[in-house]
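Quick log. Single chain, no ligands specified.
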Amino acid sequence: MEILDSVVIGAGQAGLSTSYHLKRRGLSHVVLDANAAPGGAWQHRWDSLSMHDVHGVAALPDADSPTGEQGRANVVIPAYFGSYEREHDLPVLRPVRVDRVESAGDLLVVRAGNRSWTTRTIVNATGTWSQPHLPYYPGIGSFRGEQLHTRHYPGPEHFRGRRVVVVGGGASAVQLLGEIAPVAADTLWVTRREPVWRTDDFTPDRGREAVALVEDRVRRGLPPTSVVSVTGLALREQEREAERLGAYRRRPMFTRIEPGGVRMPDPPSDDGVLWPADVIVWATGFRPAIAHLAPLRLRSERGGIQLDRGGTTAVADPRVQLVGYGPSASTIGANRAGRAAARGVAAWVSRQAPERLPQPPGRQAPERLPQPPGRQAPERLPQPPGRQAPERLPQPPGRQAPERLPQPPGRQAPERLPQPPAVVSSASSA
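-> predicted structure:
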């Protein structure tokens, strides 16, 4: 039975970054991707999302950034990922949808249908795209119009001449309103909380600060928040027309959904006012895709998976690394998380199977591989003259084990037995 050092689940930005660093360390692994083609979640993004819109995407390690290219993001980035996989000969298998991960003594078993892989560690890089979050509101099932989540956004033309409610306070809601408002008959933006707008430029330092705040949550075992909830929102140039049309005048959440629209909590009526709607767009985000990890019982009593200070190792089971979770769920932290996860895998393997890691000259794994001259394992191999293991083999004259033979007068061990005339340190007789 082959035992891998690691199985990486997911081949998005974080998964490919992890695979690159695992390969550099000489660690055996495979990458299991549920998609039929390279590109991670990017291949499923809407057609109107261009490379001009995703200027913040981070490059993969040891590769140029794709952000200088023009075209649709759902075409350019998958091609970039695919080229990267080939150039670095990464061991990606697809399509493979993992059903569950189970513990088997010191090892883990990753199961996908009738296939399985046995490994010392796993790196979960499944992200969030496959788990859209659709909150419940009273009357949600009664609406006669259309409801869709950001994940299934078809582009702005789909909404031409229609009355559209957009629900959610994140960057996706802002972007979709920017596209929908100029073609729709009317739009209504509702959020649970007042949006936080960013007034200054988004710098790398600001990005790192945002990641650090989300990292603090997962270190405490809390469910992660999105990075954008920390960085704040900003309008891009292509959203100025929607701003002029009043699309970003935020309203509080409706009280219920009715067949013909949403009931807003507006005076003067205690019952509120009905806002007629044809479409409700749920820009309400995603949740981590981690159901396959349930057999490992990783969640803390506070609801999240607690990670160590490195930001990727599960405290409940150090065999598990999580990337694309919490702070690394955005492109800001994904690349760095891949490097940290590979480091975490190497640390675990070095403890559990030290012979798997290449040792520098003169640093072979103790008592596993043959030792260089003068470095034999103590008390296992014969000792050179004058270096026998204490109290195991007969001692030469004047080197008897202390406290075994009578000591000459004047050199007795305090409160014990007499000491020999020449006291030899314990280090020299080891």
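The helical segments are 13-24, 73-87, 171-180, 204-219, 228-231, 240-244, 331-352.
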